[in-house]
Specification:
Layout lengths: L1 H21 L12 E4 L2 E6 L4 E10 L5 E12 L6 E3 L8 H4 E2 L4 E4 L4 E9 L7 E11 L12 E10 L7 E5 L5 E2 L4 E9 L5 E3 L1 E7 L5 E4 L6 E3 L3 E9 L5 E11 L2 E11 L3 H40 L1
Parallel strand pairs: 2-10, 12-20
Antiparallel strand pairs: 1-3, 3-8, 4-5, 4-7, 4-9, 6-8, 9-10, 11-13, 13-18, 14-17, 15-16, 15-19, 19-20
Amino acid sequence: MIYDIINDMKKFWGLLLLVGLLFVPTPAAADNTRIHVEPGTMKITLAIGQTADYSLKVRNLGETNYDFKIYAEPFYVSNYDYKTEFGRENNFTQISRWVVFPQRTFHLNVGETVEVPFSVVVPATAAGGGQYCAIFVEVVRDAAAAVDVAARVGNLVYGTVEGPAKREGNVEFTKPEFIQPEASFDLLQTYHNTGNVDYDSLVTVSIKDFITGAVVLETTESDKNIVLPETSRETSFVASNIPPGLYTISRETKVFGEVYSDESVVLVSPWVYFVIIGIIVLLVIILIIRAIRRNKRLNELIRENEELRKQR
């Protein structure tokens, strides 16, 4: 019996040791595989039935030599928030099928730069309009070389295939609230693209004193945001450090050469709410005082009339 107990205890401690080994954390490999690709974006024009040659430069900025592979994926966006989506195909991402790499894998030592050629072979059946894809450079995992992180960077390709182009779209300006309690506030505009080619959204803003006309803020241009075909994109311009006052805000933008403009009036005052509340409280107090005085005068008139009746 004692022998059986000793065997059971050996089994128990052996099992406990095995479980402990399974849950011992293994040190993660450091991410020393920094990779850089240039250019980060490309805008290219393509001809139907023709082949165009391009290249990317890939540089190893890390501390480890590694191999990398290169490939193309569809690139598009979700509506309004413009969240980037990769791998989802539609009529505007067929270019990912047209990209050809003479070589798909490369070796890159620390500090080295390699030029990666590729071609875009446009089929004779291609339609005119926008085409979009991402060209990814991805480090190949190699446990022996301590490369344990699949670092991936991409180049976004904005292509336009020559041919019939549908250039249609418009913009909607969101009116800012009249009272702006903060010195900085957003000016929103939503760009719509109902055509088949992309365009750049670019809004100019002018903020002037409503009374004197003095310019408080004026921009000749803002950040460009590309609006892809059959999408809508909301953009924001931040008006910063606007002093208290009454202002006229003018905005102007273009969509495929057509000018759109908007004008609004805002009152910038961080303390305006307190002023309004103070005015309301003051009016209430005045009304209460008037009501008390009115009642007091009415009571005095009643007493005077009673005294006159008694004297008669």
